[in-house]
Amino acid sequence: MVDPNKAFDAENGFFVDEGTGIWIGGGDAVPTVNAPQGSMYFRTNPAEMYRQEGAGVSNNWALFSTGGAGRIIDLSFNDSSGASVKTNSTSYTVMGSFIFPGTAQAALDTAKVSITGTTSPTASFRVYDFTNSQTIAELTSQATTNAKQMFDLGTVSNLPSGPAIFEAQLRKDSGGGSVELHALSMYKDLS
C-alpha cells in the first residue's frame, strides 16, 4: 500500500518514497521517465510490471512480470574451467538444478537451450521436475556442432502450481566426443 504521506509526482504518476528515493507508479502506458534504480511501475492494460534496472537514475525499464505471474529463468552452466558443463554419457545426466517457484509466481511457456558437441554428436536435453517426476520440456536427438547454438525445447508442460526442484539434464545420443551445456532460458513469450 502506498503511504499517502510520501511525495507524489502528479506529472509522471509516481509516489516517491522519501526514505529510499524509490518511485512507485502505475498507468496505461509503458514507463518512459528517468527514475532511481529499483523503482517499480505497474501498467494496467495489459497487466505488466516494470522495474527500473539501470544504475542511478535512468530510463532503463525492464519487464519484470506479466499477467499477474511471470518470471525469467536464465541459467549459465560452467565447470571449473568456466566454459560449460559436459558429459559423454548416453543416459540423462544432471548438469545443474534450480528451484521453480510454481505457476502462481512464474507463468512460463518457452524454453531454449544452448548446447554444443566436440565432434558433432547428437544430443538430447530436458528440463525435468525432480520433485514431481515429470518432464517439463525436451529436445531429442539434436545434431550439434562445436559452435554454440540455441535450440527451442518446444512445448513447456507439466508445470507445478507449487515450488519444485527442476533439473537440467543432458545426454549424448550418438557420435564421438562429448556434449556441452552452456545456457538455459525459460520465460513467458510476450510476442
Task: Please provide a written account of the structure.
This protein is mainly β. The protein folds into 2 domains: 7-66; 73-187, Galactose-binding domain-like (Jelly Rolls, Sandwich), CATH 2.60.120.260. Helices cover 0% and strands 50% of the residues. The chain has no helices and 17 strands. The chain has strands at 7-9, 14-16, 23-27, 35-36, 40-43, 48-52, 57-58, 61-66, 73-76, 85-87, 93-100, 110-117, 122-129, 134-143, 149-152, 164-174, 179-187. A 6-stranded mixed β-sheet has the order 1-2-3-5-6-8, with no helix packed on it. Strands 9, 10, 12, 15 and 17 form a 5-stranded antiparallel β-sheet that branches. A hairpin with a 4-residue loop joins strand 13 (122-129) and strand 14. The chain is elongated. The two termini are 31 Å apart.
Strand order of the largest sheet: 1-2-3-5-6-8
Helicity level, as a percent range?
under 10%
Indicate the low-confidence ranges by residue numbers.
1-6
Number of helices: 0
The arrangement of helices and strands along the chain is EEEEEEEEEEEEEEEEE
Overall radius of gyration:
21 Å
Provide mean pLDDT, rounded. Answer: 79
Q: What is the second-level CATH architecture of the largest domain?
A: Sandwich
The biggest beta sheet reads: 6 strands, mixed
CATH class assignment of the largest domain: Mainly Beta
Shape: elongated
Beta-strand percentage range: over 45%
As for the number of domains, it is: 2
